[in-house]
Design brief:
With 394 residues, the protein is of the alpha/beta class. Helices cover 40% and strands 14% of the residues. A seven-stranded mixed sheet has the order 1-7-6-5-4-2-3, with helices on both faces. A five-stranded mixed sheet has the order 8-9-12-11-10. The structure holds pyridoxal-5'-phosphate.
Length: 394
């Protein structure tokens, strides 16, 4: 067998373009969108065999259909996971990955600074079901070590975290999870499958929002959970099939097409972000720049170790909310939006929008200052973006 017969042996760019493709008997070049909810069977025996599992074909689009199947296979290939399950949004992925197996009395540890809705799940929803939750400073390994208890069953992290771009040492926390037999779930959304491979660093489960860099063009919501065959087939799928956070086949198709250009888009995203981070650092109106690709980032060495590049997200502090608002309102190209990972550069003031559900004192303690803005660097010419930023800062 040639190496090329096995898609697992392909380079990442080949996997992005061709992984998981199921070509129909019409021989279409691009992946087809199967916008069907159900399936028909040639005879009653076939229907029976689909339902009892003897025949592996499709049954219903709440479970799977060929377009969803292609996206699952392609995403699994990219991260070297045994299986993937696609869902309607990134939050559906985060929620299903935990809810499919957590029980009252279990203990979960997460890093303190999380995407607003992830924070809501761990601090508001899980405690209602008698799940114990401990939040730690994700960058502090001593806190991680102390947080484990006899009933610790889950660890959930984001790295880099939203919005302060703090990192968790994935390999070190992965080792602690192994020692304590806890399931390690990594939200890899900020890094994307191009910049970070959590399974190689010890993750058990990886979640994505395909809404972000994977679509990358602001069109469709989507999400995915990746993991072992045992976890996905036996634990997640029964939960997913019966609770119904199914992804629309149209959205799955948009994400599939997005993956084809993800590698080259990420290269441009990162190149632009790098140039902008340096320009911000050299600007006297900027109090502080936080970017994992800058040597001034407190965890720069860790970023170098576990990420291929600093990514497209930058946080910077302008000293006060007034200064931040004046800057945002003066931008001519960059749009004000809470979304990220888009081809269009987008700016957010986390303290008053995405993270406004956190009390002001708590925001301060987490490093989400009033003067902080979060920039999702897009694909425009970096010269134009830097000119826009420098003019607005002046
Ligand atoms: C956007 C995002 C999510 C949620 O994804 P949706 O597709 O918007 O539901 C979860 N975690 C992080 C880190 C995110 O940036």
């Amino acid at each position: 067998m040639s190496k090329l017969d096995d898609p697992k042996q392909w380079q990442q760019s080949t996997k992005l373009v061709r992984g998981g493709t199921l070509r129909s008997n019409f021989g279409e070049t691009s992946e087809a969108i199967f916008l069907n909810s159900g399936f028909v069977y040639d005879n009653a025996e076939t229907a029976m065999s689909r339902f009892n599992g003897d025949n592996p074909g499709y049954v219903y689009s709440r479970y799977l259909n060929p377009t969803l199947d292609m996206l699952e296979k392609r995403l699994a290939l990219l991260d070297g996971a045994e299986r993937a399950c696609v869902v309607a949004s990134g939050m559906a992925a985060v929620f299903a990955s935990i809810m499919c197996c957590i029980k009252p009395g279990d203990h979960l540890i997460a890093n303190k600074v999380l995407f607003g809705s992830c924070f809501y799940i761990v601090t508001q929803i899980l405690p209602r079901f008698n799940v114990e939750v401990t939040l730690v400073d994700g960058g502090n390994l001593d806190e991680w070590k102390k947080a484990f208890k006899d009933n610790t069953k889950f660890v959930f992290i984001e790295s880099p975290s939203n919005p302060i771009l703090g990192l968790v040492d994935i390999e070190a926390v992965g080792k602690l999870c192994k020692q304590h037999d806890a399931m390690f779930i990594v939200d890899n959304i900020f890094a994307s499958p191009i910049l970070q491979h959590p399974f190689e660093l010890g993750a058990d489960v990886v979640v994505y929002s395909t809404t972000k860099h994977i679509d990358g063009q602001g069109r469709c919501l989507g999400g995915a959970v990746l993991g072992s065959a045992e976890y996905i087939d036996e634990v997640l799928l029964p939960f997913h099939r019966h609770s119904g956070p199914a992804l629309s086949p149209f959205n799955a198709w948009v994400a599939l097409k997005g993956l084809e250009t993800l590698d080259i888009r990420m290269q441009r995203h990162c190149e632009n972000a790098d140039a902008i981070a340096h320009a911000l650092e050299a600007n006297s109106n900027v109090v502080r720049v936080i970017y994992p690709g800058l040597p001034s980032h407190p965890q720069y060495n860790l970023a170098q170790k576990q990420m291929k590049h600093g990514g497209n997200m930058i946080a910077f502090d302008l000293g006060s909310q007034d200064a931040a608002f004046n800057f945002m309102n003066a931008l001519q190209i960059i749009d004000i939006s809470n979304n990220l990972g888009d081809s269009k550069s987008l700016i957010t003031h986390p303290a008053t929008t995405t993270h406004s559900n956190i009390e002001p004192e708590e925001q301060q303690a987490l490093g989400i200052t009033k003067g902080m803005v979060r920039l999702s660097v897009g694909l425009e010419a970096k010269e134009d973006l830097i000119a826009d930023i420098e003019t607005a800062l002046g």
